Amino acid sequence: MSAEVTGLFDVADLMDRCLQDAGFAQEMLQIFASQVPQTFARLDAALKARDWTEAAKAAHSMKGSAGNLSARVLHGLAMQVEKTCRDGDCNSAAASELFDRCRDACRRTLDAVPSTLDLVRARAAA
To answer: How much is the pLDDT for 69?
Structure first.
């Protein structure tokens, strides 16, 4: 299943953001894949430590990275995590479920980078 089908990356929007420059889009995806694991580790550690201020900062970083690459699912969840942490509403079952969904979306989005790179390359070749 391609990233375009799963909705993890909006490839058309990504290409628009990159001014239809497939090389630039590929570079941005590679940077995303190299940097987001550290951001994810920061977020995960902060959530486990119940350090809501640090979790909000890490979620904000993740939200920006995901938004810039048109990773809509991760962007939306990171935005919700950031708001939840900033609002201090972190101890509910709903917050815990949100944190788990964001962790899962991050993993799935990173896993989708290679197929998204393939889609970008295919668009460039067309």
So the answer is: 94
Q: What is the Cβ-side half-sphere exposure of residue 2, based on CA atoms within 13 angstroms?
A: 10
Q: How far apart are CA 78 and CA 49, in angstroms?
A: 18
Calculate the alpha carbon distances from 44 to 55, 62, 122 in Å: 8, 12, 34
Q: What is the reported pTM? A: 0.89
Kindly state the tokens that stand for 25: 């889009």
Q: Which two tokens stand for residue 114?
A: 């290679």
Distance CA 71, CA 125 (A): 23
| Domains of the chain from N-terminus onward | 3-125 (1.20.120.160)
Which of 1-5, 41-45, 54-58, 71-75 bottoms out in mean pLDDT, i.e. has the lowest?
1-5
